[in-house]
Every structure is written in structure tokens, then in C-alpha cells.
């Protein structure tokens, strides 16, 4: 157990320590280094002098080390050889699993199950805290609207309210109360706006209004701060022309002053020295000056701080107070994580025995099952054992389905669809059909696939992106299933068999050509270690799918960006309108192929009788909004019920819909339940220089997706 101290007690201890430290040693706490380049998530960097730097007290933390013997050796150098014997903080990118890999974060967000996400992160923290890790660079809280961006796979989708609830689940899941040996620190990233990079091109620039920043991109960070997140990482991008890592408006004015963040701000990997490429500083000295003035506390990989800041202080160009504040925040974090009580905590030479525990694998199976999204089903699903089924495609046997940022996950741990079928003694035919990535001679595979398809009644095609087509620096301009795989699909569709398409991907793909041609469409994302088990359970009905999309699926690439919570137009696209002067494309619809909040189940749910407890909301008076839902099928199922508002008459134009509530509810066959939401004045607030309420009327919708139409009207009256 960590010794739980009050912030006051920590402050006294830190002050006592700092009173004995030299300026050089204080600046040393502001530097994060790799040890052996094993954390390479950016340009190469020479760390060959790292042991001497540690012994000289010039390193505060280490990134990306998993070898517990090396961790022990580095820590021993710090606490035995340096003057102040300050322990190192060990950080890693464990964002959807350590050895057990959970579904990619975008997939987990589709579960809309906060308690399961939190429980999953408890498992992740358990494995990480037995693998030498003190803090993880997670959760990633970037709002996303452009599926060309490779990092949508790490995100929680396009909605600020849902992303905020998920942020809370991650932080509480990792950190608990920071008093247990299984708790690890967490780091919200990437602050801020990174998902709005121009063209979906990773590392490109970002421009947005203050309204967009506060209304869409900040809420998940606000929720993470409210839940005591221990660190926030700056993003690579410029924000309205100034790199975030040196952006005083964003870091000092917004993050520290308006959002009240008191803990450590860390740069992203070399994002400090990349300021030279942004051309807003002309030297490493200038960079160090700009970043410390913006209150960046900890520099990842870049050495502008440890090589330049001391001279600025001695030349009185910056106050030593800035160094003291940064060092205080780093040392306070180390006290909070218990490193001074036990510098060797979380280091287990026999760490592998804590990995892959059966009960923890069960949690990842449930998470994978609830992350699966059923997008089409003409009744063909679930399959039964009597049918003659052919499983075709490169993803039937593929085990590389953990996605980017796979921690210490090993492909050998992963269960493929094929392995899960064999384990259950199912009878089925199989053909690879083609490779994931284009390879010569795919034609020879094609004939094999067609032969077994002709002898089968149902074809299950498992196709998709390679897992390395998403992730950092993996944006795509053509977000479709790779062409040679589509050729296989097109040939098999000619056979007039029932086809179920399973799509593996780290992003929404363009599926418009297949939506009406397949009998079933299952979105499998990258589900991690238990992928095949979860998918076979869903395909054969042991598990009823319940996932709902948290990112809109574009009708075509030309539609990007497309998201549900857009602002209304002065010339709305009213269905069946003959007015040619309206919001539209002349060649495609303006609606996405699949909207935010959409997903099917094997159950069928009927929504009726939306009701209000009162028709007026005041600051003192919340209301209840309820709906009756009946499972009109004979299959037990989970339904994600969603509540949206539409504001009328506000000082600024507000989105056509805003998610303000959701509940995941279980229904027995033919069961009716009344689902009740509480709506308060705070739910009606919007950003107009600050979060405000204004009197006006609101439509309140409750339904199965953002396309819902049943509403009631309420008034907000200031009281
Ligand atoms: C990477 C990523 C960031 C990660 C960091 C450390 O470039 O942008 O998400 O946490 O570097 O690996």
C-alpha cells in the first residue's frame, strides 16, 4: 500500500528536499529520457550518456523501459549514486493493455460501458504495476472527426460528453485512490486539438475558435482534471499558429488558470525541440525559455531544459521560481505515487507471472464482446451449427489483431477466429482467399476461395486494414478495405450466397458499396488478445452484440469531416425538399453512412411514451425525462439508450443535437422498462466566452442513435 499523505504533508516534504537541492538538480527533475531507445516513438536520439546523467541527478524520469532488471539498475543508480538520491519515475505507453491487450480505445468507446472500461483499466493497471511501470501515457482524449487520421484508433470518438465520461472511467481505473500497489498514475493527452489536424494528416497544424476549443475539445480534459489525473501531455501541433508545447495561452491561461490543473505538464516526444521546425524559436536556448514561460514542467527526450535553462536563471532572464514550481510538481507526483517510500515499487523480476491471469482474460473477453458493432443483419445472424459455413479471408487465421500501441502484447497470445472455431469443434470450410496486404499471385488464392464458397450456404468474410494502417503517423487518404481484398469480396458476391462481412480496422472505413449487398456486417475493429473468442461468440449467438458507433462512418471520403453534432445551416437540407438552394452535395447525401450512436442487436427494441416530469428547468429544479422501451424479441439483450438536446434561441448557434445522457440497459425477452434520465440546468449550458445558461426552449430526444426523432420540449428559465 502507498502511504497516503495529504497534499499539505507532501508540500512540506518537497520543500524540505528542494531546500537541499542545487539549481542543476532541480532542472534535472524536469527531464525525461529513454534509456536504450526502446521507447522509439519518434526521431532517433542519442541516450548513451544516460547513466552518468542519472548519477549526476540530471534525469527525473524514464520512458519506455519494460525490462525490470534494467529498471532496477537505473533506479539503483539514481537512489544510490546521486547526491539527492531522488527516485526515477518510470513511464510507459500502456493505452489499451500491458500484456493482455484490450480492444483499441475507439472500439472500447463503442461499448458505452463506463464500469466495464474502468474495470478493464484496473486489469491494465494490475499488469503494469507488476511490470515496473509507475505512470501510463493514457488516456488519449483527443476528439476526432477525421477518420483519415491514423490516431482515431486511440480516441473515444466525436462526442465531448461521451468522451468526458470515458476519460473519468480511464483515470479512475488506472489510479484508483493512488493508495494501492495496483494503482498507477495516468496522463491525459494530447493537449489540445491534435485530432483536428488539417487533412487528417498527423502532425499538421490546427486552427479553431475558442468556442470549438471549449465546447468540443476541452471537456474530456476538464473531466480528467476533476478526477485527479496526474499528468497532461502537450500535443505536437501548432494551435492557431503557436506550438502547443510553448503556448502560454493554452498552458498558462487555459489549462492552469481556467481549468485549474496543478499537476505535471509534459511535452510529447521531442515536441519541444521540434519547435525549431515550427519556426517559432531560433535556438534550443530560445525553446527552453519559451517552454518554461508557458509552464511546461517536464521535457520528454528533448534536452533544451537541462542544457540551457540554468544559464537563463543565472543571467536573470527567468526567475528561479519557475524552476521551483516545475520541480515541485514533479517531486510531488513522485511522493503521491509512493516512490520515496519505496523507489523499487512495481519492479518484479518475475513480472511475467502476473500477466495473462484467467480472470483478467475474462474481463478482456467481455470488453471485446461489448466493443463489437453489428451494422447490418437481414436475419442471417446469429448463425447456427447446422449451417454449411465457409470462413474466408486473411483475417480468419490472423493473430495480429491487437492494433497499434500494443504494450507488451504478443501475437502468440491472441486467439484468432479460426482457433476459436476449432476450439468449439465447429464444422466449417476455410480459405484464406488473399493476403491482408497486396501480394503477388492472389489469383491462386481466389480459385480456392470460390471452390469452397460454391459448396457452402453462408460465407463469412473476414477482411480489413492491416493493424499498422492506423496508429501514430499512419494517416490514409483512401480509407477503404484494401483493393485486392475488395476484389475477393466482389467475386464472392457474384455467387449469390448469403455473405457476412467482418471488418477489421482501426478507423471507420468507407463501406457504402457493400452496405446493401451483404446479409450481415460486423465491425470488429482490433479487439486484442481475445478477438477470435469474442467474434465467434457473437457470430454464433452466445453473445448478443450491443456496441454502438462513437464516430460517424462517412458515405464517402469527400464527406469528411462528417459528425452528428454539427451546427445548423441557414438553408437546411429538409428531406425531400425540391429547393435546389440548400445544404447539400449534388452527388451524395450529406448524412453519413452510419451515424454516431448507431448499432444493431439480435434483440429488437421499441421506444415509446417519452415523458417529462415537468416542462420547466431552473437552476433549482431538475427534471426527469423518461421513455418506455420494450424488447420485442425473444433474445435477452443490452440497449444503449441515448438522450440528446436541441437548443433553440441561444446567443450562439448550437449543434443540431448534443448528447447529454446515456444508459446501457439489459432487457429480458419481451420485457418493458421505463428508462429515466435526470436533466439539470448544467446539462443545458453552452460555451459563449464561458459556460452559460440562457433562457430558451429545448427539444429533448431519447432514442437508439443520434438519428432519433421522438422528442418533448422543455423551457429553461433563469431563477
Ligand atoms: C508519441 C505519442 C504519445 C506517446 C509519446 C511517448 O510520439 O505522440 O502519444 O505517449 O510519444 O511514447
Concise description?
The protein has 719 residues and is α/β, with parallel strands linked by helices. 27% of the residues lie in helices and 18% in strands.
Write up what this structure looks like.
This protein is an alpha/beta fold and 719 residues long. Helix content is 27%, strand content 18%. It contains 19 helices and 26 strands. The strands form six sheets. It has an eight-stranded parallel beta sheet. Strand 14, helix 18 (483-493) and strand 15 (498-504) form a beta-alpha-beta unit. Helix 12 packs across helix 13 (304-314) and helix 16 (417-423) packs across helix 19 (531-539). It starts with 6 loop residues before the first helix and ends with a strand. The structure holds alpha-D-glucopyranose. Alpha-D-glucopyranose binds next to loops.
Keywords:
globular; alpha/beta; 18% strand; single chain; 6-stranded mixed β-sheet; 8-stranded parallel β-sheet; binds alpha-D-glucopyranose; 719 residues
Unique ligands: alpha-D-glucopyranose
Report the strand count.
Answer: 26
- Kindly estimate the percentage of residues that lie in beta strands according to DSSP: 15-25%
Our measurement of the CA-to-CA distance between the termini, rounded to an integer number of angstroms, reads: 48 Å
Mean of all residue-level pLDDT scores:
96
Sequence of strands across the biggest β-sheet = 9-6-5-4-3-2-1-10
Amino acid at each position: 500500500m502507498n502511504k497516503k499523505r495529504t497534499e499539505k504533508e507532501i508540500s512540506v516534504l518537497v520543500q524540505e528536499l528542494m531546500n537541499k537541492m542545487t539549481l542543476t538538480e532541480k532542472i534535472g527533475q524536469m527531464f525525461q529520457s529513454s534509456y536504450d531507445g526502446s521507447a522509439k516513438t519518434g526521431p532517433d536520439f542519442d541516450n548513451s550518456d544516460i547513466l552518468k546523467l542519472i548519477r549526476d541527478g540530471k534525469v527525473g524520469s524514464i520512458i519506455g523501459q519494460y525490462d525490470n532488471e534494467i529498471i532496477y539498475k537505473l533506479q539503483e543508480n539514481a537512489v544510490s549514486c546521486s547526491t539527492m538520491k531522488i527516485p526515477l519515475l518510470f513511464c510507459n505507453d500502456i493505452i489499451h493493455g500491458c500484456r493482455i491487450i484490450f480492444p483499441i480505445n475507439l472500439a472500447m468507446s463503442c461499448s458505452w460501458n463506463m464500469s466495464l472500461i474502468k474495470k478493464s483499466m484496473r486489469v491494465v493497471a494490475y499488469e503494469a504495476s507488476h511490470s515496473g511501470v509507475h505512470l501510463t501515457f493514457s488516456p488519449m482524449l483527443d476528439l476526432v472527426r477525421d477518420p483519415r487520421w491514423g490516431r482515431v484508433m486511440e480516441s473515444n470518438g466525436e462526442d465531448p460528453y461521451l468522451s468526458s465520461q470515458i476519460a473519468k472511467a480511464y483515470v479512475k481505473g488506472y489510479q484508483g485512490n493512488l493508495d494501492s500497489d495496483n494503482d498507477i498514475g495516468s496522463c491525459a493527452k494530447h493537449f489540445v486539438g491534435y485530432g483536428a489536424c488539417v487533412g487528417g494528416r498527423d502532425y499538421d497544424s490546427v486552427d479553431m475558435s475558442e468556442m470549438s476549443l471549449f465546447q468540443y475539445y476541452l471537456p474530456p480534459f476538464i473531466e480528467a482534471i476533476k478526477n485527479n489525473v496526474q499528468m497532461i501531455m502537450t500535443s505536437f501541433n501548432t494551435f492557431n499558429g503557436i506550438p502547443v508545447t510553448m503556448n502560454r495561452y493554452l498552458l498558462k491561461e487555459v489549462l492552469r488558470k481556467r481549468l485549474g490543473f496543478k499537476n505535471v505538464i509534459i511535452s510529447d516526444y521531442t515536441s519541444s525541440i521540434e519547435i525549431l521546425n515550427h519556426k517559432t524559436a531560433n535556438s534550443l536556448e530560445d525553446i527552453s525559455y519559451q517552454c518554461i514561460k508557458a509552464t511546461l514542467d517536464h521535457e520528454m527526450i528533448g534536452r533544451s531544459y537541462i542544457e540551457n535553462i540554468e544559464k537563463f536563471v543565472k543571467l536573470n532572464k527567468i526567475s528561479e521560481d519557475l524552476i521551483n514550481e516545475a520541480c515541485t510538481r514533479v517531486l510531488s507526483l513522485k511522493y503521491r505515487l509512493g516512490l520515496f517510500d519505496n523507489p523499487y515499487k512495481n519492479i518484479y523480476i518475475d513480472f511475467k507471472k502476473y500477466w495473462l491471469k484467467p480472470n483478467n482474460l475474462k474481463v478482456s473477453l467481455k470488453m471485446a464482446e461489448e466493443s463489437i458493432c453489428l451494422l447490418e443483419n437481414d436475419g442471417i445472424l446469429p448463425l447456427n451449427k447446422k449451417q454449411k459455413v465457409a470462413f474466408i479471408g486473411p483475417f480468419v487465421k490472423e493473430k495480429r489483431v491487437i492494433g497499434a500501441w500494443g504494450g507488451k502484447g504478443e501475437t502468440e497470445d491472441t486467439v484468432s477466429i479460426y482457433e476459436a472455431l476449432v476450439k468449439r469443434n465447429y464444422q466449417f470450410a476455410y480459405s484464406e482467399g488473399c493476403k491482408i496486404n497486396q501480394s503477388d499471385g492472389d489469383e491462386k488464392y481466389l480459385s480456392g476461395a470460390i471452390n469452397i464458397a460454391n459448396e457452402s450456404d453462408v460465407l463469412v468474410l473476414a477482411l480489413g486494414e492491416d493493424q499498422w494502417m492506423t496508429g501514430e503517423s499512419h494517416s490514409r487518404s483512401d480509407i477503404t478495405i484494401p483493393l485486392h481484398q475488395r476484389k475477393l469480396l466482389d467475386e464472392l458476391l457474384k455467387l449469390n450466397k448469403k455473405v457476412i462481412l467482418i471488418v477489421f480496422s482501426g478507423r471507420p472505413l468507407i463501406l457504402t458499396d457493400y452496405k446493401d449487398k451483404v446479409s450481415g456486417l460486423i465491425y470488429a475493429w482490433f479487439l486484442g488478445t481475445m478477438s477470435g473468442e469474442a467474434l465467434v461468440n457473437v457470430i454464433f449467438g452466445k453473445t448478443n452484440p450491443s456496441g454502438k458507433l462513437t464516430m460517424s462512418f462517412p458515405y464517402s471520403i469527400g464527406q469528411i469531416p462528417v459528425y452528428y453534432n454539427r451546427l445548423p445551416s441557414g438553408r437546411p437540407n429538409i428531406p425531400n425538399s425540391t429547393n435546389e438552394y440548400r445544404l447539400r452535395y449534388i452527388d451524395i447525401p450529406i448524412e453519413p453512412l452510419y451515424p454516431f450512436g448507431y448499432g444493431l442487436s439480435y434483440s429488437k427494441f421499441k421506444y415509446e411514451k417519452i415523458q417529462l416530469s415537468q416542462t420547466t428547468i431552473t437552476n433549482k429544479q431538475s427534471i426527469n425525462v423518461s421513455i418506455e422501451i420494450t424488447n420485442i424479441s425473444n433474445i435477452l439483450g443490452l440497449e444503449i439508450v441515448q438522450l440528446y438536446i436541441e437548443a433553440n434561441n441561444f446567443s450562439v448557434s448550437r449543434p443540431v443535437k448534443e448528447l447529454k445522457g446515456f444508459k446501457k440497459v439489459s432487457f429480458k425477452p419481451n420485457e418493458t422498462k421505463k428508462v429515466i434520465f435526470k436533466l439539470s440546468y448544467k446539462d443545458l449550458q453552452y460555451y459563449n466566452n464561458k459556460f452559460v445558461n440562457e433562457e430558451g426552449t429545448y427539444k429533448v430526444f431519447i432514442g437508439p442513435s443520434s438519428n432519433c426523432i421522438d422528442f418533448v420540449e422543455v423551457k429553461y428559465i433563469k431563477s
